[in-house]
Write a structure and sequence with these properties.
Blueprint: H1 16-29, E1 36-40, H2 46-51, E2 57-61, H3 67-84, H4 86-90
Parallel strand pairs: 1-2
The structure holds guanosine-5'-diphosphate (GDP) and magnesium ion.
């Protein structure tokens, strides 16, 4: 069992969220389970968009800390949180699927 950890970072409005939403939709079609942790500074509405994809979503707001440092020091917690989602992933079924248990983890 393995977990692939992908960090999507870049300048504001460069298309990160848009790419994520499309990529996640494709992963779900391939029955690959996905969880997203969104890190931002003071606020974000992205969680609502990710939740519409029916995947586990966590939010981290760095507040007065530099967001890059915030995410770096919280990577381990994000990893643990992702692992904790595993029981839910086992039962996750993509819309339209009739049979089969989806793969809970991406390939190593
Ligand atoms: N023209 C164009 N607009 C895009 C593309 N990808 C994203 N956008 C738009 O650019 C804006 C910022 O995208 P977003 O994904 O929110 O960027 P983020 O801030 O990096 O997450 C939004 O209005 C998107 O609809 C693209 O490939 N082409
Ligand atoms: Mg975004």
């Amino acid at each position: 069992m393995s977990l692939r950890f992908v960090i999507v970072a870049g300048p504001p409005s460069s298309g990160k969220t848009s790419v994520m939403l499309h990529a996640i939709a494709h992963l779900k079609k391939d029955r690959i389970a996905v969880a997203v942790c969104k890190i931002d500074c003071l606020e974000t509405a992205d969680d609502r968009r990710y939740r519409q994809l029916d995947i586990p979503v966590a939010i981290g707001l760095s507040d007065y800390l530099c967001p890059d440092h915030f995410y770096a020091v919280n990577l381990e917690e994000v990893w643990d949180w992702a692992i904790d989602q595993a029981p839910r992933w086992w039962w996750w079924k993509p819309p339209g699927s009739v049979t089969g248990v989806p793969r809970p983890w991406t390939a190593a």
